[in-house]
Specification:
- By secondary structure, the chain is an alpha+beta fold.
- It is built from 20 helices and 13 strands.
- It folds into 4 domains: 139 residues, Beta Polymerase, domain 2; 87 residues, Hydrophobic Seed Protein (Orthogonal Bundle); 88 residues, no CATH class; 52 residues.
- The strands form 4 sheets. The chain has a 7-stranded mixed beta sheet. Strands 6-7 form a two-stranded antiparallel ribbon. Strands 10-11 form a two-stranded parallel sheet.
Length: 382
């Protein structure tokens, strides 16, 4: 594995340079390497050597941030090529049982068997490790078999896995959309039972912050918007976290299907666009007032997105002028402005000009309200 990736040569060399150390790639990178997916973040685990010795070793080879010292985690940036890695020691976790993803005690232990570290992970396909020195995959929970079957299965008892951390429900849905995997029945059953707990609070704080939930759904949308929406609907997560978006009409599904790859990349990369997407879907479902309520509750109102946002209108409408009017959306110019720029008197021509503008907005011919005046002047008598 990792035959063409520089991580192979790097970890083999480190294993020779640091006596007693055993180096592994763990988690999602092992999964994605076997699936032939592009490798992005690579998580590394080192066993057999104390934390301070690992830190000193890495400091001689790049910059090290011990931000996760309590959990035995180091953030490393290579002085050779700038490669960034998260490097951890094996660890045990003792969840508090609240379901809060931060409510867990962690002990790092360089002597802990790699199999025990893998046993604390969420799904079998994420609970594998590749050992650099031996080029072998360590798979105590059947992850490779589940990869071949394209199935997501919880490690161990699924009820226990979700009770430890309710965000795993959202990760499950995201992985299913990203990987186009089915969800094993017992894992699905346990997740459905735990879904209502996504709104639980402890000491006045949400166990699953809205911001984290939004991040998970948007990662899924980046891969397959329609599948992600279906999974959220079928699991009941939409009803719990976004009740404004339940029972979507057909034109909401159509809005998702209209998303282009460019739209999806903007959703992932532009801080304001996720707000626009959620706002657009809620506009398409029940109108602008409903959308405003949803964005406020999801802590998205600071973005200032409204129904005059061009991306919102294009995603929602897809050229459907009748739907534009049905949803109560308005043209980007007032009647008086139209009269002024076209030198019109009050009458039918003003209505025709506004309809022309509505048609252009619904079909995505305008990318910004600031273009409306010039566009109307150019096309009024064209």
């Amino acid at each position: 594995m990792f035959a063409t990736h520089p991580i192979k040569e790097l970890l083999e060399r480190w294993g020779a340079e640091l006596p007693g150390s055993r180096w592994y790639v763990v988690g999602g990178a092992v999964r994605d390497e076997q699936l032939g997916r592009l490798l992005q973040d690579i998580d590394v685990l080192v066993a057999g050597v104390a934390f301070d010795d690992v830190m000193a070793f890495l400091e001689a080879r790049g910059s090290v941030d011990a931000v996760g010292r309590t959990f035995g985690v180091l953030k490393f940036v290579s002085g050779e090529d700038g490669q960034a890695l998260d490097i951890a020691l094996p660890r045990r976790e003792r969840p508090a049982g609240t379901g809060g993803y931060r409510d867990v005690e962690t002990d790092s232990d360089p002597s802990l068997p790699i199999e025990e570290d893998l046993g604390r992970r969420d799904f079998t396909v994420n609970a594998m490790a590749w050992e650099a020195a031996t080029d072998r995959v360590i798979d105590p929970h059947g992850g490779e078999a589940d990869l071949k079957k394209r199935v997501l299965r919880a490690v161990g008892n699924p009820d226990t896995r979700f009770a430890e951390d309710y965000t795993r429900i959202l990760r499950m849905l995201r992985f299913a959309a990203q990987l186009n995997f089915e969800i094993e029945w017992e894992t699905w059953r346990a997740a459905l039972l735990a879904v209502p707990r996504l709104n639980d609070e402890r000491d006045g704080q949400r166990l699953v912050p809205f911001e984290l939930a939004a991040r998970e759904v948007l990662k899924g949308f980046a891969s397959d918007p329609v599948r992600m929406a279906e999974l959220w609907q079928e699991s009941g997560v939409t009803a719990v976290l976004m009740p404004e978006l339940t029972e979507w009409p057909e034109h909401v599904r159509a809005a998702l299907e209209r998303l282009t790859q460019e739209d999806i990349q903007r959703i992932v990369g532009d801080g304001i666009v996720p707000t626009r997407l959620i706002f657009a879907l809620s506009v398409a479902h029940r109108g602008a007032d409903n959308a405003a309520a949803l964005t406020r509750r999801l802590r998205l109102s600071s973005a200032g997105v409204g129904v005059d946002d061009a991306l919102v209108q294009r995603i929602v409408l897809g050229g459907d002028v009748a739907l534009y009017k049905e949803l109560g959306l308005k043209p980007w110019l007032e009647g008086e402005t139209v009269m002024r720029i076209l030198n019109l008197s009050a009458g039918p021509d003003v209505g025709r000009a506004l309809d022309l503008l509505i048609d252009a907005q619904a079909k995505g011919k305008l990318s910004d309200p600031s273009q409306a005046e010039d566009w109307l002047r150019t096309h009024w008598n064209a």
